[in-house]
């Protein structure tokens, strides 16, 4: 009984209406078969008598038998085992009481199909075997000839096997569809999690760069302050200049920290600090690309490194490094160009081109998390990031960052 009632799904009004229509349709079909099937199959009355078949005239008992084997189908999906057993037992007990052709098995067949589609393969096989045994040993109507009885049994058993196989096939199709949907949802969640992880990694990387910039600035302040302390008595002018340098260095460090403070997040543990690299190491990227047999052109002639804050310079190099990595790993490029510029007043700009497969290529999809990281880094610097088809035929990465960073306000 536990298997009969466990795991019953929830149904809406529409589901109940559909099952009611199916039950009513099965009842009507069985009534139609009961009244006209014999007359249509063997229209000659003499032949019907010779074969021991009488013309079927509906009676109260026959209508009751049809109702008992079909109307419970309203509950077929909620209680598949209970409905199947009821319909099959009702059919086996009542069909021998009817005259003429045997009672239609439409009700038990629908119940068997439903059970096979809703339950496991083992349960479907058990139900099919049980129904075949009932069909094989159920008593035939006394007026029905032996030949017709055997044909009817064979036909009903074949229909039972077909119903069980059809129900199991539907069950397997639904399971495969459900598994595909679950895998797609899991893959989508995995992509989202990976994107968030890459973004957080970029944030930690930028925070590490802030640490290095701050440490450098404070070291410079300490050195200048010590020099001013030594010179204050014997060379006041030099001490004054040292103090002015302390003020400028401290002011610059405060501006850089203010611009980058949004990167830090509550709960972040201390990150391992490594020396930061700026655009003065662009030659390393050129060597990296050339080592991958990619022809590289580097243009820094329009880039005034002295007017670019250190944290922006470091960030531009980080974006260029990520772009170079994507070119080597995913683009399949043979040529690449890297260009830095400060020609546009108040902005530092980076443009990276390649002649690889482009954004639409399947291989490029693997580098999209890199694009997310570059975009996040540019956004945190209040800049713009874009990736679009390159004149060389591959992808162009274009970044523009304002040199004057506005302090963000948080409510």
Automatic annotation (TrEMBL):
One of its GO terms (molecular function) is phosphorelay sensor kinase activity. InterPro entries: HATPase_C_sf, Sensor_HK_TwoCompSys, Sig_transdc_His_kin_sub3_dim/P. This is histidine kinase. It catalyses: ATP + protein L-histidine = ADP + protein N-phospho-L-histidine. The chain crosses the membrane at residues 20-43, 55-75, 81-112, 124-141, 147-170. Residues 202-267 form the Signal transduction histidine kinase subgroup 3 dimerisation and phosphoacceptor domain. It comes from the Bacteria. GO terms for cellular component: membrane. It is an enzyme of class 2 (transferase). It comes from Adlercreutzia rubneri. Keywords: ATP-binding, Kinase, Membrane, Nucleotide-binding, Phosphoprotein, Transferase, Transmembrane, Transmembrane helix, Two-component regulatory system. Its EC number is 2.7.13.3. Pfam families: HisKA_3.
């Amino acid at each position: 009984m536990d298997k009969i009632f466990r795991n019953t799904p929830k149904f809406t009004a529409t589901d109940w209406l559909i099952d009611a229509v199916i039950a009513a349709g099965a009842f009507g079909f069985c009534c139609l078969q009961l009244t006209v099937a014999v007359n249509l199959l063997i229209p000659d009355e003499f032949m019907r008598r010779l074969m021991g078949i009488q013309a079927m005239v509906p009676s109260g008992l026959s209508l009751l038998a049809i109702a008992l084997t079909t109307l419970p189908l309203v509950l077929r999906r909620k209680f598949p085992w209970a409905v199947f057993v009821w319909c099959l037992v009702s059919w086996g007990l009542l069909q021998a009481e009817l005259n003429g052709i045997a009672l239609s098995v439409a009700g038990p067949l629908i119940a068997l199909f439903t059970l096979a589609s809703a339950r496991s393969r083992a349960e479907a096989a058990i139900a099919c075997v049980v129904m075949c045994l009932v069909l094989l040993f159920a008593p035939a109507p006394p007026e029905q000839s032996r030949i017709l009885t055997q044909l009817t049994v064979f036909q009903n058993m074949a229909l039972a096997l077909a119903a069980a196989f059809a129900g199991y096939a539907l069950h397997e199709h639904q399971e495969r569809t459900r598994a595909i949907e679950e895998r797609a949802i899991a893959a989508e969640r995995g992509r989202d999690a990976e994107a968030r992880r890459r973004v957080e990694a970029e944030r930690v990387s930028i925070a590490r760069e802030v640490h290095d910039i701050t440490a450098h600035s404070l070291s410079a302040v300490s050195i200048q302050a010590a020099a001013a302390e030594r010179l204050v008595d014997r060379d006041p002018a030099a001490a004054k200049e040292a103090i002015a340098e302390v003020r400028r260095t401290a002011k610059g460090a405060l501006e850089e920290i203010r611009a980058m403070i949004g990167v830090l997040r509550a709960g972040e543990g201390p990150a391992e600090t490594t020396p930061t690299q700026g655009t003065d190491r662009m030659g390393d990227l050129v060597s990296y690309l050339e080592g991958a047999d990619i022809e590289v052109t580097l243009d820094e002639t329009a880039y005034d490194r002295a007017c670019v804050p250190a944290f922006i310079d470091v960030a531009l190099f980080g974006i260029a490094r990520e772009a170079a990595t994507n070119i080597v790993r995913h683009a399949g490029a043979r040529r690449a160009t890297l260009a830095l510029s400060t020609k546009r007043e108040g902005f530092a700009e980076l443009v990276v081109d390649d002649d690889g497969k482009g954004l639409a290529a399947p291989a490029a999809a693997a580098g999209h998390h890199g694009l997310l990281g570059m975009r996040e880094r540019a956004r945190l610097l209040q800049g713009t990031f874009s990736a679009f088809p390159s004149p060389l035929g591959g992808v162009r990465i274009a970044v523009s960052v304002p040199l004057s960073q506005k302090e963000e306000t948080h409510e």
